[in-house]
Specification:
The complex is a heterodimer of chains A (224) and B (292). Chain A is mostly helical. Chain A has a single domain (5-223), classed as MetI-like (MetI-like fold, Orthogonal Bundle). Chain A is built from 13 helices and no strands. Chain A has helices at 5-34, 40-52, 55-66, 71-80, 88-98, 100-113, 116-124, 129-137, 142-157, 161-166, 177-186, 190-215, 218-223. In chain A, helix 1 (5-34) runs parallel beside helix 6 (100-113), helix 1 crosses helix 11 (177-186) and helix 7 packs across helix 8. Chain B folds into two domains: 2-225, P-loop containing nucleotide triphosphate hydrolases (Rossmann fold), CATH 3.40.50.300; 231-280, Beta Barrel (OB fold (Dihydrolipoamide Acetyltransferase, E2P)). Chain B is built from eight helices and 15 strands. In chain B, the strands form three sheets. Chain B has a six-stranded mixed β-sheet, sandwiched between helices. Classes of the chains: A mainly alpha (224), B alpha/beta (292). The A-B interface holds A 115, 117-118, 120-128, 135-136, 139-140 and B 46, 49-51, 76-80, 82-84, 86-88, 90, 92-94, 103-104, 106, 150.
Chain lengths: 224, 292
């Protein structure tokens, strides 16, 4: 029988990261979709960096930054009392950065594809930008939100390099499923590695299929 | 009284254009902005609504300053009391007709007013439908009602009827005039349709390359345009009747109904609702030599 803990940890990490990212990404995507500031291309590039950067590079710099030997890491530990290195919290912070483009991009393009008159109409009605976002814009980009949520979740499930760099391999704390697979292969237990792999494969396939079914309107057509 | 005095450089497909407006619009007036596309009509409305910022200028509405670039006053669109009907209607797809109006009404929901407005535009039966299920004319009526829910001082209509068929246009012109009178609005309409302007407007402003080149009563502005000296009007065929061997065409010219005689061959060329020119050739004196 395999150890279920790494799988549960993966699900927990993916859920928490997705929830945090949703809160972080919506204002960011809103700003990127509508701002005309000159600094926008720089911010856009930074958000997209995790797409092309090797996870180990990101992991390495996070490792350096979170280290208590450095001023930022020391400040985190002394002032906020959090230890981000080799801890679950650290993994969440890393995943949020690592999966940022997967949440921001769908929401940003969803917002910029909405007719600008919707926003104008709400403003003329006296609605604040926040109310407009909450009541008018977000309800009309539900497919984009769903895509963002699912891609982020699936991407976090598949995370390996960053986790290895800053989380290590601590059972129950940082040993997620992808690390467990690596671990089992190193121990030459191909059976266990296969079970973890199959489960991850099935889970990600199901999630992505669900998105395509919902966003493509297949389910609606099927039910009607 | 609306006082407009501003400048804005617009960059369009055909290069930069300086929109320079210095105008006064009387309270309660129905004003049409007329002009080619790209002349700056929509930008003028957007600047008045606060959706676009002019480079410099002053906007005063009924005594209160909405914009004064000299001392930095610039009311947000949220604070300007305007109703705006967008060209694409801009109904919120996630809300029903009724919810669109309720959302526009905000906190001080005036249920009576919402009910009245839905009645005026005859959307009572469809009020629980989502916009996607409505026809163009129905969406337009909802957009009109929604723009009035907040009791705006100024109603702005950006070519609201351009996408509708003739019959629906006539009906909506009627609704617009009705709400204009009933709610004592100052209304600014963008329109290209001559008969629509003649029917609705007290004043028209002709905008060309960012400047207002003409202002006046529509009938006068349009008749001055035709300086050929001919007796000529644009009208719409309302009715075709047969009387013995001839036909009588009833044509609506401005507010007047005119009857014109036509023969059978001519009648087949025209359909009801078609826009035609009604002209009478002048009786020119003819000069001839007495002796060859």
């Amino acid at each position: 029988m395999i150890d279920w803990q790494p799988l549960l940890l993966t699900l927990k990490l993916a859920s928490v990261s997705t929830a945090v990212l949703l809160i972080v990404a919506i204002p960011l995507a809103w700003w990127l979709a509508y701002s005309k500031k000159r600094i926008k291309p720089v911010i856009e590039t930074l958000v997209s960096m995790p797409l092309v950067l090797p996870p180990t590079v990101l992991g390495f710099y996070l490792l350096v930054a979170f280290s208590p030997n450095n001023s930022f890491g020391a400040w985190l530990e002394d002032v906020l009392g959090v230890q981000l290195l080799f801890s679950f919290d650290g993994l969440v912070v890393a995943s949020v950065i690592y999966s940022l483009p997967f949440m921001v991009h769908p929401i940003q393009s969803g917002l910029s594809n909405l007719p600008s008159s919707l926003r104008d109409a709400a403003y003329v009605m006296g609605k604040s930008p926040f109310t407009t976002l909450l009541k008018v814009l977000l309800p009309n980009i539900k497919p984009a939100l769903l895509t963002g949520i699912v891609l982020t979740f699936a991407h976090t499930v598949g995370e390996f390099g960053v986790v290895l760099m800053i989380g290590g391999n601590m059972p129950g704390k940082t040993k997620v499923a992808s690390i467990a697979i690596y671990d089992e292969v190193e121990a030459l237990d191909y059976g266990a590695a296969n079970v973890y792999s199959l489960i991850l494969f099935a889970v990600t396939f199901t999630i992505l299929l669900a998105v395509y079914l919902v966003n493509g309107g297949y389910l609606k057509r099927f039910w009607q | 009284m609306i006082e407009l005095d501003f400048e804005k450089t617009l960059s369009g497909a055909s290069g930069d254009l300086l929109l320079k407006v210095n105008q006064q619009i009387t309270k309660g007036e129905f004003v049409t902005l007329y002009g080619k596309s790209g002349a700056g009509k929509t930008s003028l409305l957007r600047i008045l609504a606060g959706l676009m910022q002019p480079d410099k200028g002053l906007i005063k509405v009924n005594g209160s300053t909405w914009l004064n670039s000299a001392n930095g006053v610039n009311l947000k669109p949220q604070k300007r009391k305007v109703g705006f009907v967008f060209q694409d209607y801009a109904l919120f797809p996630n809300m029903t007709v009724n919810e669109n109006l309720l959302f526009a009404a905000g906190n001080g929901k005036d249920k009576g007013l919402i009910r009245d407005l839905i009645d005026i535009v005859e959307m009572g039966e469809l009020q629980h439908r989502k916009p996607v299920t409505l026809s163009g004319g129905q969406k337009q009526r909802v957009a009109l009602a929604r723009a009035l829910v907040q009791r705006p001082e100024i109603l702005m209509l950006d070519e609201p009827l351009s996408a509708l068929d003739h019959e629906m246009r006539l009906k909506l012109q009627h609704y617009i005039l009705q709400v204009h009178r009933e709610y004592h609005l100052t209304t600014i309409l963008i329109s290209h349709d001559v008969s629509e302007i003649l029917k609705t407007s007290d004043t028209m402003l002709v905008l060309d390359h960012g400047k207002i080149i003409q202002k006046g009563i529509p009938a006068e502005v349009f008749s001055h345009k035709e300086v050929s000296g001919k007796f000529q009007f644009v009208g719409e065929i309302i009715k075709v009747e047969k009387q013995d061997v001839i036909y009588i065409l009833s044509i609506l010219i401005g507010h007047e109904l005119v009857k014109v005689v036509a023969d059978e061959q001519e009648v087949t060329k025209y359909a009801i609702g078609e826009r035609v020119i009604v002209a009478s050739k002048a009786f020119n004196p003819i000069i001839k030599k007495l002796y060859q």
